[in-house]
Amino acid sequence: MPLTLDEIARNVSHIKDEIRKAALESGHPADEVRLVAATKMNDAEHVRAAIAAGVDICGENRVQEMLEKQALGAYAGVPLHFIGHLQRNKVRQVVGLCELIHSVDSIALLREVSRVAEMRGLLQDVLMEVNIGREDSKSGFFPEVLAESLAEASELPGIRVRGLMAIPPVCKVPEENRPFFLQMQKLFIDNGGKKYDNVRMDFLSMGMTGDYTEAVRCGANLVRVGSGIFGPRQYT
Ligand SMILES: *Cc1c(COP(=O)(O)O)cnc(C)c1O
């Protein structure tokens, strides 16, 4: 059963409290951490309830689903981000519509985003996805090629790199992800110290329902929470 709108509102306020506490522990200003609702498989009504309850941003995974919900006004009032794996042939539908693409996982995709954005006279903000657990099942840049990939990205006129994103390996307890989150924090800080054109390390996107407090303690300022807001996804 999908959650009621009241349950969604309670979940959002609980998560925001947890984020605030974790941010205080990490010494970060709590209002710098943004809650991205991972809205995949949840309908427009539930998405609107999450927005009314105070999520800062909506993040979608699939282009078709996003366009359908957008047509229903699901995201009114908050920025829309793209957080799922993006195929090159779908780039045209995302550029300009999403304020930030979290999941740019290859130079080829970066180039395509830049090409489309430039053609439209836009500057598209993106994050570089890092395959921090070196998993075959995940995409993203390996940590050791990140610096050279950022240098390549800085040559592309249609994009602006705003930070990094990661999805660490699935694990049983949130603390197990701490080493991955700390490695991400280090990459974020180290690469933020280098001065490339079109590259600014503003956003570190990591942490989901099971581990967002741990991620915030390790410096995440965008957390992407789905089932913690909407309940378990209904696979049909
Ligand atoms: C679904 C999804 C999330 C949220 O996952 P939950 O465990 O439901 O919080 C976060 N990030 C990405 C990229 C996702 O696809």
Bound molecules: pyridoxal-5'-phosphate
Mean pLDDT: 95
Structure class: alpha/beta
Q: For the record, what CATH class of the domain at 85-212 applies?
A: Alpha Beta
- What does the oligomeric state look like here? single chain
CATH topology of the domain at 85-212: TIM Barrel
Q: Distance N terminus to C terminus? A: 12 Å
The tally of beta strands, per DSSP, is 8
Q: Strand count, sense and closure of the main sheet?
A: 8 strands, parallel
Physical arrangement of strands within the biggest beta sheet:
7-6-5-4-3-2-1-8
Question: Looking at this structure, what is the CATH superfamily of the domain at 85-212?
Answer: Alanine racemase
The residue ranges in which pLDDT falls below 50 over 5 or more consecutive positions are none
In the CATH classification, which architecture of the domain at 85-212 applies?
A: Alpha-Beta Barrel
Shape: globular
Descriptive report:
This protein has 236 residues and is α/β, with parallel strands linked by helices. It has a domain at 85-212: TIM Barrel (Alpha-Beta Barrel). The protein is built from nine helices and eight strands. The protein has an eight-stranded parallel beta sheet. It is globular, with a radius of gyration of 17 Å. The two termini are 12 Å apart. Residues 38, 40, 61, 83-84, 167, 208-209, 224-228 line the site of pyridoxal-5'-phosphate. Pyridoxal-5'-phosphate is lined by residues 38, 40, 61, 83-84, 167, 208-209, 224-228.
